[in-house]
Amino acid sequence: MLDHLQQHFANLGNEFARPVKAAPLKEGQLRHVNWRLAEALGMSAILEDQTALQQLASGHGQGLAMKYSGHQFGVFNPQLGDGRGLLLGEWKDSRGELWDWHLKGAGRTPFSRFGDGRAVWRSSVREHIIGESLNALGIASSRSLCLLSSNEEVMRETPEYAASIIRIAKTHIRFGSFEEFFYQRKYQQLRELADYCIERYLPHNSPGDYQSLLDMAVINTADMIAAWQVYGFNHGVMNTDNMSIIGETFDFGPYAFLDDYEPEFICNHSDTHGRYRFSQQPSIGLWNLNALAHALSILLDQDQLKSSLMNYQKQLANTYQSGLNRRLGIQGLNEDDVALSQRWLSLLAAHNLDYNLSFRALADVLRGIGWQDSFTVLADSEDGKIWLCDYHTRIENQSPEQTAAQMDDCNPLYLPRSHHLQQVIEASMQGDDLPLERLFDCVSSPFAKQQNDYGFDLAPASDEKGICLSCSS
Ligand code: AMP
Ligand code: MG
Question: Does 21 have pLDDT greater than 80?
Answer without folding.
Answer: yes
